[in-house]
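Handout, page 2. Input:
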Amino acid sequence: MKKVLVARAVFPEVLEALRAHFEVESNRDDTVWSKSQLIERLQGKAGVFATGSERIDAEVLAACPGLEAVCNMAVGYNNIDVAACTARGIVVTNTPDVLTETTADFGFALMMAAARRMAESERYLRRGEWLKWHYDQFMSPDVHGTTLGILGMGRIGQAIARRGALGFGMGVIYHNRTRLPADKEAAVHARYVDKATLLREADHLVLVVPYSPASHHAIGAAELAQMKPTATLTNIARGGVVDDAALAAALKERRIAAAGLDVFEGEPRVDPALLEVPNVVLTPHIASSSVRTRRAMADLAADNLIAALGCGSRAGRPPTPVNAEALAAR
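Output:
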């Protein structure tokens, strides 16, 4: 029976599903391991059920020659060196689709909370400073009827576009590496623009672009300078897509109105400057964290691992491979 490692705590039912096929070592204490600790625990393992906490790079792969599959419980996989895995014939999988609607819900809620100054006004109330009504108390930009800008127009971006256009009567513009086909643009009521136009015209800019070296600091000081002073920025993509230090400075100086952030550079560390500005809503990478969605993500990651290691009804055909060429090479 092959051995697998479950690198973080997960639903007990998912562990039982894996134990039906493998000898399972699980991280009961939910410790975030160092690289050397991860390498030690991967010895003799054919597969790993990973999360964004584990960096599976070329050094790890070289030290774990028996590894056959890396199955991420996330739609993103920038924690995995996919090219190095492919070169070694190691299958990489992720968990797309199952978190699309939940993440879009959260992204829209985060954008609205930032735009309508909800966190800022709640802190004001909790401090006991609300003593009377006045006409301009926490006035903010509207959301309905304004222009929603989306950077990155994959599944989640399209789901956010639908919410904005159909639910809030927003005009939707987007920029993406590849323009959508006309029928898909029509379905989400979105108009393609270049990046400069997106930054200039968006009242509320939402980031859902995947992280890669090409998207690192896609929003930095120069991009923030192109945005309206009344605009908001929401990041549910990945830490590193935004230059957090530049954003904190722009917020402090009110060069944009507000921001909502669920992801951060170097998370779980957060740039201290972001903690000091009032006009930002901060959440700890929880956009997909509904009961149903997190369970679906875990189930899909487990199904991928079972299939990638040649077990179950889909043996050799994991549902959502990232590097199908590694499967073909087998």
